[in-house]
Protein: GAF domain-containing protein
Organism: Jiangella alkaliphila
Amino acid sequence: MSGGLDSADFSRIAADLHEAPDSERTLELVVEYACHAVACDRAGLVLSHRPGRLESAATTDAWASNVDQLQGEYNEGPALWAMQHRATVLVDDIDADPRWPRWGPAAAELGLRSLVSVRLFSGDRTLGALNLYAARAHAFDEDDVAVAEIFARHASIAVSTAGEEAGLRYAIDARHLIGLAQGMLMERHGLDADQAFAMLRRLSRDNNIKLRDVASHVITTGLPPKEP
């Protein structure tokens, strides 16, 4: 399933991550590029500011956000395992993996079947984890794991460089705003979570403004920004 990136691709990704204008955009680019690097269905990045505690910092969509947040709610899951054991997690079929008795069935009910979770770190400090998700079993092989680990090294450098506490906190706060805006769009327009998130992303790109600012506009006015 590997995306087949070569060294030039990784160099370009590293440059793009380094040149991101702020920590919020850095985290968004990490999950976007992760899907190209490993060709996963969805991706999520969680940060650890306190031992054993996770906060969702960036996801490709609302589904990935839900799966990531469940790890924090249940205080178990592959991201926590990867951080605690300092090792990459590969799950071929979540239905057959007994390591997370609460998170596993809940994630499977949402449609998750297989995943790779890679620890992000700087020196001895654990920054968080990158979660790569697939809706079919046995979606990832050893080559995918190797690519994910290489990508995670680049992502770790980018997150660490952008990772002044205030900057990452700002990015996490943006996730909360986006969640509130999603809820408003779902209620007012009869959308599901993925549709609401996709609308916010499209408005962000079409208007060339940050996703956070789109969410703030929706929360403040009750209306999405006018499309150009």
The first helix runs from residue 7 to 18. The chain has a mean pLDDT of 85.
